[in-house]
Amino acid sequence: MTTAPVEVQSRETQNGLRYARWAGMLLGLFLIGYGPYLYQQAGSAAGLAHLLRALFYMAYGILLLLPLNRIPSDRAWTAVFAGFVMMTVALVFVLIVSVIFDYMAAAERDERLGVPGKEGTIIFFGLMQIPVHLFLRKPDLID
């Protein structure tokens, strides 16, 4: 059985983390624009809930753009990372609840919605950022 040299595995791992980080940054840019778009689409029916959801998407998008692995203190990084994990869990919760409400509204109109692909993709890329930030800060945990 042959194994690849450690150097090649490390380079491939670093490239994978870099690509995953870029995906998170793209998600951040998307959410910064998507929040106001959703609020605008709600129109005159937009209430406090729509405003808070738009602001949350924008805040999470900005958080995704921050280079968390460059925080100098381990204690500060741990606190910021814990907040990031909580924000990611809140993002998943908000997206799932919004899909449930969309399905309930469609059922009242006797319509059927398709698979929530956009929300599922946002959840996937959002959840992917937790291990990405962890492994960028502490690469020795990968092996």
Describe the structure.
- There is one protein chain.
- It is built from 4 helices and no strands.
- With 143 residues, the protein is mainly alpha-helical.
Helix share bin: over 70%
Helix count, DSSP H or I runs of 4 or more residues: 4
- Beta-strand proportion: under 5%
Q: Give the low-pLDDT segments.
A: 1-8
Mean of residue pLDDT? 87
| Helix/strand class | mainly alpha
Based on CA atoms alone, the radius of gyration comes out at 18 Å
**Morphology:** elongated
Spell the H/E element sequence: HHHH
Spell out the blueprint of helices and strands.
Blueprint: H1 6-42, H2 48-65, H3 74-108, H4 117-137
Structure at a glance:
It contains 4 helices and no strands.
Descriptors:
4 helices, single chain, mainly alpha, elongated, 143 residues, disordered N terminus
